[in-house]
Amino acid sequence: MKTHKLLIVDDDEMIGKTIKTVAELCNFHVIYTDSAMMFFEQLALFKPDVIVVDLILPNVDGMQLIKKLVELNSKAKLVIISGAGKRVVNSSALSAQEQGMDILGVLNKPFRTAEIRQLLSNYTKLALTEAKLGRSLNGPATNSWFPTVDELQHALDNDLITVQFQPQISSQTELLVGFEALARWHDEEHGAVKPDYFIQLAERTHLIDKLLVCVFNQALAWFADLQDRHENKSPLALHLEPANLSLSVNLSVINLYNDELPEELLACCEEHGVAASSVVFELTESAAMENPTQMLDSLTRLRLSGFGLSIDDFGTGYSSLIQLARLPFSELKVDQSFVATATESNESRAVVRSVVDLAKSLDLTSVAEGVETEAQARYLKEIGCNVLQGFYIAKPMSIDDCDQWIKTYYGAKEDQRLKALRALNLINTQNEARFDRLTQLAQRLFNISISTLTLIEEKTVWLKSNAGDAAVELEREHSFCAQALGFQDVFIVNDASTHERFSDNPHVVAEDGVRFYAGCPLQLRSGERIGTLCIADSKTRTFSDQEKLVLKELASLMEEELEVIPDLDIDKRTGLFNRRAVESRARGILRMAAHGNLSVTMLLIDIANFHAFNDEYGQRTGDLVLKELAESLNTNFRRCDTIGRFGGDKFIVLMVNAHNDSVQSVDAILERLQADINTGINPKLATGERQINIFVGSSSVEKMHSSEFYDLLYEAEMSLNRSRYGQID
Ligand code: C2E
Ligand code: CA
Ligand code: CA
To answer: How far apart are the CA of 110 and the centre of ligand 2, in A?
Structure first.
């Protein structure tokens, strides 16, 4: 026997019939109609227990239909279907609920039959329990509470609306980058009220501006004080520079109709001493696109006040590229629904990836919301989504819980970091040429007194490679590098003597103390940050964006150097880089030179008739020649040059900005090498004197634009051939 009655209204016959079939299988007696008129006829006659309503019907607006149901005092449970997006369906459901309808659930098109089955089975179960309890299921709802305007007003006046914070982290560095503030209303009698609900209530009743100011002020108070609360609790304080963190706050579109909004929000910031640039306002895509021309004005004013602007729930609205490019947003937030299904659904993955790409091409920060699993986080990192937010990182938390979470999160990160650093076995070990080459290069390129590779231990900073003259070991507490560790990329102090944090630092107040500092964190492939590549000087100095880029490139070369297995890179006979190693180093150098518009010179050095020499004097003597040449290369070139054995009797040298150092001419170098090798080798030859001839080919680019290793190599080969065979061009 069919026990329950279901009435459907949907103009899409396919959908109507599908629901009918599923419901009948679930033991429902079903009537399907495709127009509002027929629906109301059936309503009176059939007296359904459950009603399924499509929000979009020809000639009637679904909301009107629901209103009429209310007027008719229908006690049926309601299921709302729509293809207009989750928010629209949810808000209609809330509004219906508010008017006294009982909502069984919502179905977003396209939905699966399993979802219908689930809803109907929920109903069946509910009906069963209610029957046992002897109550009528279709009586007035007793379990949900819908506050009134007065109650909301009361809550606002009595600080009953609070704020929770949900952390956001960088996908690349896993450092905290910000928090989203989310409004909460906990009613003593009725428990938590869903934000979706009271925000809509506030929007309809002109309380939304009050709500915004209430949320914003609480969030600012917490945020402004964040660093102080964690101050001196090294290493936590180091990562909580306000400059590195943002505070995101949700805006309602109604807020934007208030012309005084930017001034009011700026006043709040001023009161709490938080820079507008630290604040990001989020607006949903559908809201922003409701009236893009009107929005443009309000949003531009907010942006001009210095606030960041984010499009929330991106992917669910219908913005055109043109509109998007025109509105002054600084951030795109991929909607949770795509993130949640990104690892299973090809379509979701396509949406997520294109939103991230879009953000990249419009130079906006991309944020993924609703990240719940490690697999999702990994995927998002892989496609270059900048920021992650979701339960996988942390749920929204009260102020106290959030402070505790920060401590725990960084505590765990610090442990991981130290473990990774110690595993490298680089502390308290000898200097290594592979690191010195890069610190020397930094020193020369920036023409600066100090350039160091630092490794940051629990309490100490080790200067692993030190191109200038500074101590070998510093206290972490006073170290600039320990601060740099918390920055996304390069941390710059132009004049430490006037810097809030460093003006009384012992390294600054000392005679000839530090004035300028720039440090780039070094991160292992596994994600841990173990130290910095930094430069410093006792004179103040400005640092251009291009210089910053060069330092970042050098740091990435250093990162590679930290993780190589040195034994695999070194040629046993000469102690120089082997071919593979020198080629990979050269590529890195060329990339950096291209970014910094630096000049590069490549030299190819070849020993003439080395085969014949080997045949005549034997392999061991041949090896001596190679060794002698390697030694001579090491002394005749700068320690910042990249030198390698490029093949049997061929060597390669790569020099950056050699002209600045007035490096000797190619001919002069050749002469020196030749002299060195002959004076070195001849006493060791058992039989008489022997002249070893060396040829050099060179190629160079004044200002590197592209960074093709093989172009440069080809030129050098040609030049070598000319010198060897005496060809004239
Ligand atoms: P929203 O701005 O999209 O906020 C994100 C929502 O997703 C929050 O719900 C958050 O708790 C939830 N969430 C975060 N991570 C995850 C996750 O990994 N999985 C899942 N399933 N959910 C996650 P909440 O706090 O219920 O807020 C709902 C909406 O209410 C917000 O959506 C926002 O539109 C609105 N809202 C909240 N606070 C305010 C406010 O102060 N002002 C305004 N105008 N709207 C607010
Ligand atoms: Ca939001
Ligand atoms: Ca959202």
So the answer is: 25
